[in-house]
From TrEMBL:
Protein name: Prolyl 4-hydroxylase subunit alpha-1
Keywords: Iron, Metal-binding, Vitamin C
Organism phylogeny: Eukaryota, Metazoa, Ecdysozoa, Arthropoda, Hexapoda
Gene Ontology molecular functions: L-ascorbic acid binding; metal ion binding; procollagen-proline 4-dioxygenase activity
InterPro entries referenced in this protein's UniProt entry, alphabetically: P4HA-like
Cellular compartments per GO CC: endoplasmic reticulum
Length: 83
């Protein structure tokens, strides 16, 4: 019981079903963020919910192993101009 994945901007909550999966895109075709795909996990009332995440990239990988070894990486993403 419980453990739904909720998409509050869409008014949808997907009930977990053993052996099933859900997949959605987080970007519009023009590459802008699809804010309506904001989602979160509802609490599990009874039982266990296991999840796995698979990222499917729309663009080339922006990091290399060499870059990731640096100890002082900092990133700032500005989404203020998104609608």
């Amino acid at each position: 019981m419980g453990g739904n994945t909720a998409f509050p901007m869409l008014g949808v909550a997907v009930k977990p079903v053993k052996g099933s999966a859900i997949l959605w895109g987080n970007l519009h075709p023009d590459g802008k963020i699809a804010r309506d795909t904001l989602h979160g996990a509802c609490p599990v009332i009874y039982g266990i919910k296991s999840i796995a995440t698979k990222w499917i990239h729309a663009n080339d990988q922006m990091f290399t192993r060499q870059n990731c070894k640096r100890s002082k990486l900092s990133f700032h993403f500005d989404f203020s101009d998104e609608s």
